[in-house]
Amino acid sequence: MSAASEKAFQRFTEAIGANEGTGDWFEVTQEDINTFADVTHDHQFIHVDPEACATMSPWGVPIAHGFLTLSMLTHLTSSIAVNPEFLEGIVMGVNYGFDKVRFVTPVKVGSRINVTSAISGAELKGDAVQITRSMTVNIEGEEKPALVAEWITRLVYG
After folding, report:
1. Is residue 48 within 8 Å of 36, Cβ to Cβ?
2. What DSSP letter does each residue of 71-119 carry, written as one string?
3. What is the dihedral of CA 13, 17, 119, 113, to 10 degrees?
4. Taking the domains of the chain in order of start, what are their residue ranges?
5. pLDDT in tens, 83-99
6. Looking at domain 3-26+66-157, which CATH architecture does it have?
7. What is the pTM of this model?
């Protein structure tokens, strides 16, 4: 166990419950949805067919895939400032997974989304600190969020 990982663990533990901030808005376009549909081979009409959505979908317009919204977390969090003390001695960070992902409200094409992040847990794992963050993807103008998830990352320190 490195001194850097111990120090980082202490800092993250002290920050549990702290809101890390809210990221910048991002517009979800039909092109984004279509590209995701092509990559995942999920061309269900509710995502890619505006004409069918107008007559058959309860939302009247295409909606983003839930997994597209989830996969946007990396981009959505990139505009949230990171406390530089958390990065002292870091070698790399890796995605470890998710606990409890919920797709609460569909993201309609043309909507703008952002994310709010809060630290909800920290565990020391040798030279790594495993961080759990509570993520909420907001939709501009909507009361309920698009997504809530517990995102786990491992930060490896030298």
Report:
1. no
2. HTHHHHHTTSPPPGGGGTTEEEEEEEEEEEEEE-S--BTT-EEEEEEEE
3. -170
4. 3-26+66-157
5. 888 889 999 999 999 99
6. Roll (3.10)
7. 0.92
